[in-house]
Design goal:
The protein is of the alpha+beta class. It contains 1 helix and 5 strands; from the N terminus they run αβββββ. A hairpin with a 3-residue loop joins strand 2 and strand 3.
């Protein structure tokens, strides 16, 4: 009898939980892109391919996730 290790879960859903919390709280974020540009706003929508970033006094933007280096929460003052 061959024992098999349990399969490693491929998806932790941490991204989903984190983005959902950012949307619910309308948390201001800074999105750092792979080309080092930074975009400020809050995430209003996301799916498996992109996020929609809503901005004050600027057009809303759709950003493909593959273009995102990281997202950080901007501190409220």
């Amino acid at each position: 009898m061959v024992r098999r290790l349990p399969r490693v879960q491929e998806q932790t859903h941490a991204e989903t939980l984190y983005l959902t919390q950012l949307i619910q709280d309308k948390t201001p974020v800074i999105v750092k892109l792979v080309n080092d540009d930074e975009i400020f706003g809050w995430i209003e929508y996301y799916d498996k391919s992109f996020i929609r970033l809503t901005r004050d006094n600027a057009p809303n933007v759709f950003i493909y996730k593959e273009q995102i280096k990281f997202i950080i929460e901007k501190r409220r003052r």
